[in-house]
Amino acid sequence: MDEQSDSPAPPQAGTRHYTLLHSNELPHFSEIPFIQSTSSRIDARLAILDKEIARLEQFAAERAVLVSYGSQSKAALSPMRRMPNEILIEIFVLTVPSVESDGSWACTFSLQKSPWVLTHVCSRWRAVAISTSALWSQL
């Protein structure tokens, strides 16, 4: 007998067992062994299902760890990470607000704009931006 067939089916409407489950009637003395047997079978099946659920939860937890590890591994190979600092500096310099020929700023000063914003992306960008004097010479 497989585990699935050992699951007791809920009683059908109109049966004595259904009536006992959906009312406060007392079972007859002769009905008690059947109800106890059904309860035992339900408990046994629940124990099996609980073990399977715990196993699935372990698989789900392992999967979540592997997804995170895989994402981190792929990120480590990102072309942006391998870009030389010299190229990164050139890109950074292009993001600085320009100064007009009369010495005024083309845009208003803001902490949300370059070069300030470059220092908040990651530790590498912060180190590169802070060490690049061309980014700070116009401030």
From TrEMBL:
This is F-box domain-containing protein. It comes from Roridomyces roridus.
